[in-house]
Amino acid sequence: MEKEETLRIDNYCFVCGKENPKGLKAKFISSNGKAKAEMILYKEYQGYSGIIHGGIIAALLDEACAYAGISLGYYTVTAEIKIRYRKTLKVGEKIIIEAFAEQIKSKLIQAKAQIKDSKDTIIAEAEGKLIIKEKIEKS
Ligand SMILES: CCCCCCCC(=O)SCCNC(=O)CCNC(=O)[C@H](O)C(C)(C)COP(=O)(O)OP(=O)(O)OC[C@H]1O[C@@H](n2cnc3c(N)ncnc32)[C@H](O)[C@@H]1OP(=O)(O)O
Q: Where is the Thioesterase domain (predicted)?
């Protein structure tokens, strides 16, 4: 049987990679199944004029879910993610991205994430199903 490829982090993740010059460079902090990041998205990430592209919002929510899963000690891949876009996000607004994850089966982590603006208004929410690929070895 073919051996499964291991997941590697090489700092080039489009959302969080410090070395990806074209990435979003989001800085997540995470522990105990929770993840959080704050950032501002500029014009480079808009769709319609002045409004951040929904695909970028989805990527941030997905990443937040993954970080929440990582903080439980697992590398995962996203099997499913459902996004609810509640308000448009304006270019240049500060946002807070938060996620919460829990392991509900041996290979399945369920995660919820949301993005709020600085007035605490929910911009978008997500529910994700993450499949555990491997346990993170502590170095
Ligand atoms: C720091 C960097 C962070 C980066 C974060 C990036 C996040 C991402 O973008 S990940 C990339 C995008 N996602 C992917 O590429 C995933 C591609 N899809 C796949 O690899 C597969 O379809 C995969 C692994 C999701 C499911 O594979 P499949 O062969 O169907 O599942 P399998 O391995 O047999 O099953 C595993 C378990 O998961 C369950 N499962 C699979 N899919 C689902 C689902 N949609 N809902 C619920 N459970 C599911 C199965 O039922 C099974 O459970 P059990 O062991 O209890 O029977």
A: 50-122
